[in-house]
Specification:
heterodimer; A: about 400 residues; mainly alpha; 2 domains; four-stranded mixed β-sheet; about 5% strand; B: about 290 residues; alpha/beta; four-stranded antiparallel β-sheet; about 35% helix; about 30% strand
Chain lengths: ~400, ~290
């Protein structure tokens, strides 16, 4: 046990202090944080500055500020607010539009001055306010007393909306989150798994394994490496997840996330752990077959292919998480390591499905560790040309 | 005491070891010599448990050598191995801990070894930034950091400059004096002759000669007399019951069964300035043994 701990500690201290590890973690965290802000940046502002000038200014500005945001204007980000500024004359208002101080100016209550047009949300708000004012004036000029006009205007109920299918916005968000979960898992698995293979090959190619194995059992050397690099991988995952969550709450998109997103993220950590143990055990075994860094690619390609295949199939089925392919593969290790969290993020799984899939994957992890240790033990001290997998298995 | 007893090992059809047997006693410096591919490395790897023999066993203090025993051994494999991207002080201390030392003790021992090997100012460097000779020193420190009970070193002197050879020899002699059996292989036969108590010569997987350097010399049938005679006529030895086998800087090298007859002949021929047995060097013994 002490040997296992010493090996794991060395991996954490030596690999964790390399610039490559720290820099890639910081960059990944920064990228994830930026991604969390992206919906905000692309979604347009929530606040508009509108200027008013000339006749009808008072009426129109009252309409703008009291306007109840309709369903269409709320979008993903909640109701937009409109700030109204009154300008003394048309020249000042035009200058403000040109300088970008305001998004648009309503001139004499019937003309919209813009700097090259406004976005559809603001256009809708302004149009609604204009029509409200114009309708009220039309009714008044038709002879209705002003209080009745006000009553009539207020009695128009908002249009009801009812979705027959899934909420389109939520479905979109779920697809995005499922895709992000899959991409995140893939990269977070790929890095430490490759480090395991590289580390095993480094020890074998530098022949240090011969000294190590005179004081350590093979399972201690392989197990310590998997644990140590796993700890580094977990730190990476936690830092990046934290960066994403902090950025998401800072950018204010948290309330817009579909229900269950946060618990999905926590479950993803568990899937990452199982997936890592599975792939890392195989990576260690395959790495032990070769004695030269140049042979690294050849030996670990089958594993990389398996990981890429799991990734692609999970990513491609994210848009159709209820397809039978997605459902079946979400129970088949190692595909389940990415398929099940993808389905979970898509909001289409029961808790017992996740537990069942996790149990199956955990059983596969035990098998992979036993198989990996067996191959590693037999192959790691055979120097020279690449050891054939079947030879290592038979011993 | 470490006993290597009847080791056999084949790789496919090729027999690498064919009944290798010898003993390294406590406090003994054992030089293991042989041509490339004779079986030195295979023997040492089996002794370190890195390789399984097909037959035979290695005993330590009378018991079959176990994993726990080997943890207290010091080993330098033929192909040097260190982590290229790990600081050398940390690396030496790491191996100390792997051999069961406490963290504090191994750190201290690492510092002492760096001091001893003149590497203190490189303590924070990565192994890959050191010269080969310095990497070799680190390798020695890795093998010795835990004060091993037995040393098994495969070609510890190869690639060292003369100063480093002396340092290495001193270190080995010191461990030896502390009662540690040292088994090392080398192609530098003069060096082996100079520092070893015993020598084992292996050829084609079999031990062809084992014993102290003196024993091996005496065993040799081809001892020659070295005789220098001032003022002797050329060919003075031709009539003697002897055969001139060589010439060493004016002195004749004579092979004979009757040394007294040669002495009498030499005295008769002139003024004898040198008369003595010329002992074969290890190089000669080795050539003879593996021929």
């Amino acid at each position: 046990m002490n040997g296992l701990f010493l090996v794991a500690r060395r991996e954490v201290l030596v690999r964790g202090r390399t610039k490559g590890y720290l820099v890639s973690m910081i960059i990944s965290a920064a990228v994830v944080a930026v991604l969390a802000f992206l919906p905000k940046l692309l979604g347009g502002p929530d606040e508009y500055n509108v200027g008013v000038v000339g006749a009808e200014s008072a009426v129109i500005s009252e309409a703008l500020t009291t306007l109840q945001p309709t369903q269409e204007t709320t979008g993903d980000e909640g109701p937009a607010t409109v700030t109204v500024t009154e300008f003394p004359d048309e020249a000042a208002a035009r200058a403000a539009v040109e300088d970008g101080d305001v998004d648009a100016v309503i001139l004499n209550g019937d003309t919209l001055l813009t700097d090259g047009g406004v976005n559809s949300e603001l256009s809708l708000i302004v149009d609604t306010a204009y029509k409200q004012v114009a309708s009220a004036q039309a009714l008044e000029s038709a002879g209705l007393p002003p209080d009745q006009v006000a009553q009539a205007m207020a009695s128009v109920p908002e249009m009801k909306q009812q979705s027959i299918g899934e909420d389109a916005d939520e479905a979109g968000a779920r697809l995005a989150i499922a895709s992000i979960v899959v991409i995140f898992l893939f990269f977070m698995l790929m890095y430490p798994v490759m480090f395991v293979a590289m580390g095993v090959i480094e020890e074998k190619s530098s022949r240090i394994v011969e000294i190590l194995l005179s004081t350590l059992r093979p399972w201690q050397l392989l197990g310590g490496k998997i644990i140590g690099l796993g700890i580094l991988g977990l730190i990476n995952v936690l830092v990046i997840t934290a960066a994403g969550l902090i950025a998401a709450s800072a950018s204010g998109i948290m309330p817009d996330l579909p229900p269950g997103t946060i618990s999905t993220l926590f479950a993803t950590l568990g899937w990452w752990g199982l997936g890592y143990a599975f792939f890392a055990a195989l990576a260690g075994a395959l790495g032990s077959l070769v004695s030269r860094q140049e042979d690294a690619n050849a030996t670990i390609t089958p594993l990389t292919m398996l990981m890429v295949a799991s990734y692609l199939v999970a990513l491609l089925t994210a848009s159709n998480p209820k397809s039978s392919l997605a459902v079946v593969l979400s129970y088949v290790p190692p595909f389940s390591a990415m398929m099940m969290p993808m389905r979970s993020a898509s909001g289409s799984v029961e808790w017992w499905e996740q537990v069942l899939s996790a149990v199956l994957l955990a059983a596969a992890v035990v098998g992979a560790l036993a198989l990996g240790a067996r191959i590693y033990r037999r192959a790691v001290w055979r120097m020279g040309s690449r050891v054939k997998l079947m030879e290592a298995l038979r011993g | 005491m470490m006993e290597i007893d009847g080791l056999r090992k084949s790789y496919g059809d090729k027999v690498a070891l064919d009944g290798v047997t010898f003993t390294v006693r406590s406090g003994e410096m054992f030089g293991f010599v042989g041509a490339n591919g004779a079986g030195k490395t295979t023997t040492m790897r089996i002794a370190m448990g890195v390789l399984e023999p097909d037959a035979g066993e290695v005993r330590y203090e009378g018991r079959p050598l176990a994993f726990a025993d080997r943890r207290r051994f010091g080993y330098m494999p033929e192909e040097r191995g260190l982590y290229p991207k790990m600081k050398i002080a940390e690396q030496i201390a790491y191996f100390g801990e792997l051999h069961g030392m406490s963290a504090a003790k191994s750190k201290k021992a690492a510092a002492e070894w760096l001091e001893r090997l003149n590497l203190t100012d490189r303590a924070g460097d990565h192994v890959q930034d050191l010269s080969l000779g310095n990497q070799q020193r680190v390798q020695l420190a890795v093998a010795l950091v835990h004060e091993p009970e037995v040393l098994i070193l495969d070609e510890p002197f190869s690639g060292l400059d003369p100063i480093a050879v002396d340092t290495m020899a001193d270190v080995l002699a010191e461990r030896n004096a502390a009662g540690v059996p040292v088994l090392f292989s080398s192609h530098q036969l003069e060096l082996v002759e100079r520092i070893c108590d015993s020598v084992g010569i292996i050829a084609d997987g079999q031990m062809v000669a084992v014993g102290s350097v003196g024993e091996l010399r005496r065993k040799e049938g081809r001892r020659v007399l070295k005789v220098a005679v001032e003022g002797a006529a050329p060919g003075w030895a031709d009539a003697l019951p002897a055969k001139v086998v060589g010439n060493d800087d004016g002195a004749l090298l004579i092979s004979t069964d009757d040394d007294q007859a040669v002495l009498a002949g030499a005295v008769a021929a002139g003024r004898v300035t040198h008369f003595g047995w010329q002992e074969p060097t290890l190089v000669e013994i080795f050539r003879e043994a593996v021929a």
